[in-house]
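Homework help thread (please don't just give me the answer)

Our assignment gives two proteins as sequence + structure token strings and asks us to describe the second one. The first is just a warm-up. Here they are:
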Amino acid sequence: MLNSILRKIKLFRRDEIKKIALIAHDSKKDELVDFVKEHREFFSKYSLVSTGTTGGRIIQATDLEIMRFQSGPIGGDQQVGALIATDEIEAIFFFRDPLTSQPHEPDVQALIRLCDVHKIPVATNTATADLLISGMKDQ
């Protein structure tokens, strides 16, 4: 058990570099998994965090190390928001479903608002995600 805890601490801190958050609504999870697989080399250079189910699916498909939080509707979005507020997030890839009402929509809006306040870039689809990766590679 101690090794598991130490691994999580190492994974979460990973040399104190800023993290990328990966989040997807249910109908967009496959799309985000495919996107991360396509850009695995890019994502492997960052410390990654994710909401529960999304992170599990990405880990399964890519073997990337990801610190998983709760599922979005039960607090995961707010956990990511806490990292934004403490200046630990560099970018968010949040593939949202704009056509389906979400039961935790207030949490989603709060997360987006925090990104705006703290000037954190958010990619909500593959087109903006490709542009975000291009911009981050140029830094």
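The one we have to describe:
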Amino acid sequence: MHYKKSNLGILLVFVIIGLLIGSAVGELLGSILPDGNVVEMFFTRPIIRPHFGPATLNLIVASFTFGFSLKMNIISVLGIIFSVVLLRRYLFFYR
């Protein structure tokens, strides 16, 4: 499949939006479902959790601290898939 640069940017935006919406839905489900529920454990617990601890850059005048953490659950992955399907339909419809 051949994408133009603009389509790759749109794909990245759709993936990020799908990840954010999926994470929000997963967190919402996690707060609604009771603790220890099998569905809650399967759908809302993180399956991928990369974490890069804080790194500090001290420039004498200013100090910067950088860090990165990502929590992806099954609902987040489903959100990404759903957003990519929507993107494909959008690109097919507006050709």
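TA reply:
I won't write it for you, but here's a hint about the kind of observation we're looking for: Helices lie at 5-32, 38-44, 74-93.
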